[in-house]
């Protein structure tokens, strides 16, 4: 028997097994992934105003990009600016909240902000308040916010920091769960 015929036969069998293996692997990968997750719409450079169940403004969102998940009905937002209008009653200021990334729940009742979060109250009904953290969950209709992370709150005359923030946006009352530090900050006259 010729050695070239044996080598040719072995190479042919190897090529067939390799081709079958690649084809089999390809069909398994396609079946496993299913349909690709795509946004049902994307907004670029937009302003959106969300209304609550009573038809009043819950929040306004400005951002360069928003993508909506068609299955969960949630929205992912790049570098959002959320404008939360003043609530009803005395002592309710409007708030501006910025972050690197944002997420809006399907019903619009929860906003999750991540990365360089900064919230500023308008100061129309009391001292202006600024808060800085790396993550914040805001509930605009309930006028509440919370963060499990370290938060720094600046008000005229004071700097307060701590971990585990619970904030009432209407009254600007806040509490921390741990690591609370207070510093007097002299105000310019």
TrEMBL record:
Q: What are the UniProt keywords, alphabetically?
A: Cell inner membrane, Cell membrane, Membrane, Transmembrane, Transmembrane helix
Q: Which Pfam families match?
A: LptC (PF06835)
Q: Which PANTHER family match?
A: LIPOPOLYSACCHARIDE EXPORT SYSTEM PROTEIN LPTC
Q: Which NCBIfam families match?
A: LptC_YrbK
Q: What is the designated name of this protein?
A: LPS export ABC transporter periplasmic protein LptC
Origin organism is Lysobacter yangpyeongensis
Q: Which gene encodes it?
A: lptC
């Amino acid at each position: 028997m010729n050695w070239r015929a044996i080598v040719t036969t072995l190479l042919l069998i190897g090529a067939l097994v390799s081709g079958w293996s690649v084809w089999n692997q390809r069909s398994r990968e396609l079946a496993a992934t299913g349909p690709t997750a795509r946004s049902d719409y994307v907004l670029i450079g937009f302003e959106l105003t969300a209304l609550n169940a009573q038809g009043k403004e819950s929040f306004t969102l400005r951002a360069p990009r928003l993508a909506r998940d068609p299955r969960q009905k949630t929205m992912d937002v790049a570098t959002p600016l959320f404008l939360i209008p003043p609530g009803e009653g005395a002592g309710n200021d409007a708030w501006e909240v910025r972050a690197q990334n944002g997420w809006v729940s399907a019903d619009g009742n929860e906003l999750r902000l991540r990365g360089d979060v900064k919230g500023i109250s308008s100061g129309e009904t009391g001292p202006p308040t600024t808060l800085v953290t790396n993550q914040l969950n805001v509930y605009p209709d309930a006028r509440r916010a919370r963060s499990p992370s370290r938060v720094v709150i600046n008000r005229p005359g004071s700097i307060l920091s701590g971990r585990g923030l619970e904030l009432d946006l209407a009254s600007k009352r806040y509490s921390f769960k741990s690591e609370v530090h207070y510093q007097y900050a002299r105000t310019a006259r």
